[in-house]
Amino acid sequence: MFHQAKWLSMHNPVKRNMMPIMMPMKSFRLEIVADASDPVVAFDGRQSAIAAELQRGVCRALRALGHSVVTELALANGRRADVVAVSPGGDVLIVEIKSCLMDFQSDCKWQDYLPHCDRLYFVVAPDFPCEVIPDHAGLFLADRYGAELVREPVEERLGAARRKAMLLCFARAAALRLQRHLDPACGFEI
User: Fold this and answer.
1) SS3 33
2) Pairing state between β 138-143 and 146-151
3) Which of 22, 27, 132, 153 is surrounded by the most beta carbons within 10 Å?
4) What value does the CA radius of gyration of the chain take, rounded to a whole number of Å?
């Protein structure tokens, strides 16, 4: 679905029109064989292989839309958001990854993310039963190569103090991860 050449290279200029047209859900089957030369690497190794692929796909799509992205971001309430994105205008988005229906049914912590974002999205595989996703949440369908925005969520704007706290948390995490990447022996863990 998202494995066209334009999705494989994020070095090309990115435009909103890169999003592919959705195929009918009933006839769609994900038949992409994982390419060993294009590994998917999870940030902290805690995610399943499917969750890591969904994470990479949705992060690519968010970057293509102009957002900055940080994965596995610790929030002030002790929760850890799967993906947090900041739009060019400063909007804070949280994306919750659901690798299967059982993952969605057994995990209700996503409601704890609502006070920390302007918009909440779920990202799922194309064969996920999307009707179980709450209507007020946004929805991405993804694979390891990209994602498609299926539905925008209801927007609930953050207050100024919470927005500042989230943007500082995001910026510090991104800076610390960059420093750790540039200097692995710097002496701190993320």
Assistant:
1) coil
2) antiparallel
3) 153
4) 16
* Overall size of the chain counted in residues: 190
Per-domain residue ranges for the chain? 43-182
Cβ count near 29 (within 10 Å): 10
Burial class (CB in 10 A: 0-12, 13-18, 19+), 176: middle
67 CB contacts (<8 Å, ≥6 apart)?
85, 86, 87, 88, 93
CB 91 within 8 A of CB 98: no
The answer for residues whose C-beta is within 8 angstroms of residue 86's C-beta and 6 or more apart is 67, 68, 92, 93, 167, 170
DSSP for residue 118: S
